[in-house]
Design brief:
Layout (H helix, E strand, L loop, with lengths): L3 H10 L3 H13 L5 E5 L1 E2 L2 E3 L3 H16 L3 E6 L9 H9 L5 H6 L7 H9 L7 H9 L5 H6 L3 H9 L17 E2 L4 E2 L1 H12 L6 E8 L4 H13 L7 E8 L6 E2 L17 E2 L6 H7 L4 E5 L10 H30 L5 H13 L14 H12 L3 E8 L7 E6 L5 E6 L9 H8 L3 E2 L3 E5 L20 E7 L2 E7 L12 E6 L29
Parallel strand pairs: 2-3, 3-19, 4-7, 4-11, 7-8, 12-19
Antiparallel strand pairs: 1-13, 5-6, 9-10, 11-16, 12-15, 12-16, 13-14, 17-18
Length: 524
């Protein structure tokens, strides 16, 4: 099926031919839907911590923080064009926008009030002064353009170069928040957030950002410049970047599940989705790693709640991890008593939320020991769960597996059978969702880093219909980073307040009170 040039293409991308064959097999057999048993709720899969418990776990976490075990891992998006999607639509609808254009020349289905809203709130955006400076370079005044409803030049200088070029910058470099004497980008907010719960005894904060290949040099220059001006009395910044590797791309196929070739005859590969970042996370060789998306940041005036819960999630993970390690040390000794077995059964069911096989009691002591070793010696994650208010995101569910066992999983809507009224009813009954707020334990009880690929579920990827050069194709996304890629981890769900979740998906989200100074947000 594959020629010598094809084989060379595999090796150029760092993809073993065997892996390509495995991807073809997935296309042919299809991706099975996840079987939901029931949603996780408070007391039934989701733990709600009391105020005293929050303090206890935060104090427990503090020792790990000081010992240098903590890293922040921030999956950063590519270009911010999606954030400016509506404004780009206005720009494409009319090359020289006026007030009338905003109401009449937008694509069908667009909210015609959004353009007016954006320009009426221009001074509320943290990038307003920078935009005014860019406009002035052309001998224009931003205030005059706004008064005259001449919106075209404003959008041109906001979205493109020469100008701020925001439509092509990574989202992490867009100015989000205004402070009395300065502004901050999402990258800066993540740095300052890290200062609050990831600073070791040497005053060092460890942060890692994943970036798109075309943005890596720009982001690294930004981090270097920021770090060089950072006060060492506040902290030392250990900041690194990595990009999604081409070896994580997946082969595209045609509608008959045959390898898809471009007009040049070469095989077509597509990015494997955010699940490909599992390799970046694994290569980090971290111990306790917090994962949070680049656009989920909050203004400093609201950071205390986020910090408190971050520490508590970390402490909760350490508490459970210590119990796991204690059990594993027992299992590694020759003596494994009936009492040990009973304690581990209880721990498995009541703490880890895992069901033991029906035939477990009939197994030999060695079989039981092997079972517990496999269950306990895995990466662990504690996931913050927010009450469901209609925001998009994966939800926490009890998932049923082919052997009849249940486990806690974060499930996306695409994983649920759309033709099953029963499964859809369970999906809609979810009370919480995951805002990508995780803390992970990535080392085993002997201090060795796990190979995270060993704990992924390859049957939880996604197959979708795309097009290339005017022809339809099928694309495969790898199991999502916090979905199938972590399916075989030990998973725990903790309720966190909604104020800890403040995503910026569109430019208009920056007008929410959480992203505005108190004086501009009604003293929220």
């Amino acid at each position: 099926m594959f020629s010598e040039p094809d084989q060379q293409q595999f090796w150029d991308k760092g993809i073993p031919p065997k892996l390509v064959e495995e991807q073809l097999a997935i296309f042919r057999r299809g991706v099975p839907f996840t079987i939901l048993d029931r949603p996780c709720t408070i007391g039934n899969g989701i733990t709600c911590l009391s105020s005293s418990e929050l303090d206890y776990y935060a104090n427990l976490f503090h020792q790990a923080e000081l010992s240098g075990r903590v890293t922040k891992f921030v999956p950063a998006s590519g270009a911010a064009s999606r954030m400016f999607k509506t404004l780009l639509a206005y720009w494409n609808a009319a090359s020289s926008l006026t007030q009338d254009d905003c109401g009449n020349s937008v694509p069908s289905g667009s909210d015609q009030n959004e353009c007016h809203h954006f320009f009426s709130k221009m001074t509320s955006f943290a990038f307003f002064d920078d935009l005014a400076a860019e406009v002035s370079k052309q001998g224009l005044k931003l205030s005059h353009l706004l008064q005259a409803h001449q919106y075209g030049p404003i959008l041109k200088h906001l979205l493109f170069s020469p100008g701020l070029n925001y439509a092509r910058l990574p989202k992490g470099l867009i100015k989000f928040h205004r402070y009395p004497q300065h502004t901050r980008t999402p990258i800066e907010e993540h740095i300052f957030e890290g200062l609050a719960y990831a600073k070791d005894s040497t005053n060092t904060v460890h942060l890692h950002f994943t970036v798109s290949p075309e943005h890596q040099e720009l982001v690294e220059q930004y981090l270097s410049a920021f770090g060089s001006h950072f006060d060492p009395n506040t902290a030392f910044l250990d900041m690194t970047c990595s990009q999604q590797k081409s070896s994580s791309d997946t082969l595209a196929v045609d509608l008959q599940n045959q390898p898809f070739r471009g007009n040049n005859g070469r095989l077509v590969f597509r990015p494997g989705g955010h699940g490909a970042l599992l390799e970046n996370l694994s290569n980090l060789q971290g111990d306790i790693v917090f994962i949070k998306n680049i656009d989920n940041v909050v203004h400093d005036r609201l950071i205390d709640t986020t910090t408190r819960y971050k520490k508590a999630l970390g402490g909760y993970l350490i508490s459970v991890q210590e119990k796991l390690f204690s059990h594993l040390r027992i299992l590694m000794r020759d003596e494994f008593t009936a009492e040990h077995c009973r304690n581990m059964m209880t721990f498995t069911q009541e703490v880890l939320g895992l069901s033991n096989p029906d035939e477990f009691t009939n197994w030999s002591r060695q079989q039981q020991k092997t079972f517990f070793l496999r269950q306990f010696n895995r990466p662990i994650r504690v996931c913050g769960m927010v009450s469901n208010t209609g925001e998009p995101g994966g939800g926490p569910f009890w998932v049923k597996h082919s052997n009849g066992s249940l486990s806690l999983q974060i499930v996306e809507s695409s994983q649920v059978d759309p033709h099953s009224s029963e499964q859809q009813a369970i999906w809609r009954s979810s009370t919480h969702f995951n805002p990508v707020d995780l803390v992970c334990g990535l080392k085993d009880f002997q201090g060795k880093a796990f190979n995270l690929k060993d704990f992924s579920d390859p049957d939880t990827g996604t197959i979708s219909r795309k097009s290339h050069e005017g022809r339809d194709l099928k694309a495969l996304e790898l199991p999502g980073l916090w979905n199938g890629a972590m399916a075989n981890w030990n998973t725990l769900f903790i309720e966190v307040p909604h104020i800890t979740f403040n995503p910026v998906k569109t430019i208009f989200d920056l007008l929410r009170p959480e992203h505005q100074p108190a004086r501009s947000a009604g003293q929220v």
